[in-house]
Amino acid sequence: MAKLTLYHAAPSRSSITRWMLEEVGEPYDIHLLNLSRGDTHTPDYLAVNPMGKVPALKHGDVVITEAAAICAYLADEFPRAKLNVPIGSPRRGAYLKWLFFGPNCIEAAMMDRANPRKEEPRRGMVGYGDFDTVMNVTAKALAKGPYLVGEQFTAADVIVGSTLRWGMMFKLVPERPEFTAYTNRLAARPAFQRAEAKDKELAAA
């Protein structure tokens, strides 16, 4: 049995982690969960992730939850894949910034756009500030390309790229040239294509 086990539902946010695992290139097992059947709220799964959501990754006796945390963990645990920026590099600050910016700013702004509040909150009360600033900051970073920290593809690209791709698919993120060029580059990666094909097989089954 592989040391890595992904608790996974297809399609869901855990597809981000599956892509990351394909990029890492280590063998892994899938523990498939059915969201509509309530599998994430069973006592067995709540013992793995008390939040009752996917993804969760088990590596030996270690359990990691939250997609960005899992991607960061895998990048550090398997440095041969060169998906992290090591401590001591001046680029590490930007790498960590984008790992957290994806879920905390891009996804948060996007979901607020999808589910408008009755009253617009004061800018200082939301962690991302405002939608347009988030989009502009992201586009400016991607215009420097090809990836978020320059020439190196990292775990941060898995997180941000997945979020932008999903957002554009559901018209929650504008199809700016910087976003479409970036997500097209990512979609051409063999690991992305493998992960997507495997998830399509699961969804069809």
Structural class: alpha+beta
Oligomer class: single chain
Write down the Rg: 17 Å
CATH fold annotation of the largest domain = Glutathione S-transferase Yfyf (Class Pi), Chain A, domain 2
Strand order of the largest sheet: 2-1-3-4
Instruction: Work out the helix count.
Output: 8
Number of domains: 2
Biggest sheet layout: 4 strands, mixed
SSE topology string: EHEHEEHHHHHH
Tell how many strands the DSSP assignment holds.
Answer: 4
Examine the secondary-structure arrangement and name the CATH architecture of the largest domain. Up-down Bundle
> Hey, roughly how much beta strand do the residues contain?
5-15%
User: Please, what is the average pLDDT?
Assistant: 94
CATH class of the largest domain: Mainly Alpha
Topology diagram in text:
Layout: E1 4-8, H1 14-24, E2 28-32, H2 43-48, E3 56-59, E4 62-65, H3 67-77, H4 92-114, H5 131-143, H6 155-169, H7 177-187, H8 190-204
Parallel strand pairs: 1-2
Antiparallel strand pairs: 1-3, 3-4
Helix pairs in contact: 1-3, 1-6, 1-8, 3-6, 4-5, 4-6, 6-7
Report on this model:
It is a single chain. By secondary structure, the protein is an alpha+beta fold. It has two domains: 4-82 and 191-204, Glutaredoxin (3-Layer(aba) Sandwich); 92-190, Glutathione S-transferase Yfyf (Class Pi), Chain A, domain 2. It contains eight helices and four strands, in the order E-H-E-H-E-E-H-H-H-H-H-H. It has helices at 14-24, 43-48, 67-77, 92-114, 131-143, 155-169, 177-187, 190-204, and strands spanning 4-8, 28-32, 56-59, 62-65. Strands 2-1-3-4 form a four-stranded mixed sheet, covered by helices on one side. A hairpin with a 2-residue loop joins strand 3 (56-59) and strand 4 (62-65). Helix 1 (14-24) packs across helix 8 and helix 6 (155-169) packs across helix 7. The longest helix has 23 residues, at 92-114. It starts with a strand and ends with a helix.
